[in-house]
Design goal:
Creatine Amidinohydrolase; 2 domains; four-stranded antiparallel beta sheet
Length: 203
């Protein structure tokens, strides 16, 4: 039976610092994921940033794997190779996984982002649309998604069930509306309608 190893305070401090540094790498890579950028460009930036933070690329330490990241687009699963031919397009859902070896410890993090959003003026409103290409929301859950602490049993990630209620509160404070709906081609679209300044009620 494997025995658990209790880390010292010094080791825990190193792990925290490694995580903090990798968090900076993650934030920079997230900003890079835009329409027209390739997976290879994100990979090159990851390599440079990890080195700048004083670490090494964890994934490159795995036998047979030569990259610092795993990048998947849309239906891709895991261990997506960051190829130059993979160029992000509007409508893509991009997942990036990156790890760093820092002073004897590995840290790992990931993020997923959608490259799809629009804003336009319709009559007396500014209309914002944000969409993804995920699995969507079960129809039975849609009427309750804005309830405090409500989480669909189909949700893949952890959470408190407060994000959408808080968002609705901000939008309604501006005399606007927010709604969620499943798209016919898959995924969810969030639509926010905010009245233009000249059409808001005067205090």
């Amino acid at each position: 039976m494997l025995k658990a190893t209790i880390k010292t305070e010094e080791e825990i401090a190193i792990m925290k610092e490694g995580g903090r540094r990798l968090g900076k790498v993650k934030a920079a890579l997230r900003e890079m994921v835009k329409e027209g950028v390739s997976a290879a460009q994100v990979e090159a930036e990851a390599v440079a940033l990890i080195e700048k933070e004083g670490g090494e690329a964890s994934f490159k330490m795995v036998e047979g794997y030569s990259w610092a990241t795993c990048i998947n687009v849309n239906a891709g699963l895991v261990h997506g190779i960051p190829k130059e031919s993979v160029v992000f397009k509007k409508g893509d859902v991009v997942s990036v996984d990156v790890g760093m070896y820092y002073k004897g410890f590995h840290t790992d993090t990931s993020f997923t982002t959608a490259i799809e959003a629009s804003a336009e003026v319709q009559h007396q409103f500014c209309v914002l649309r944000i969409a993804d290409n995920g699995p969507g929301i079960p129809a039975a859950d849609l009427p309750r998604v804005f309830e405090k602490f409500y989480r669909s049993r189909a949700a893949a990630s952890a959470g408190t069930g407060l994000g959408l209620p808080i968002a609705r509160g901000f939008v309604e404070a501006q005399q606007g509306t927010i709604s969620l709906g499943n798209r016919s081609g898959g995924g969810v679209e969030c639509m926010i309608m905010l009245p233009l300044p000249q059409h808001t009620e005067q205090a």
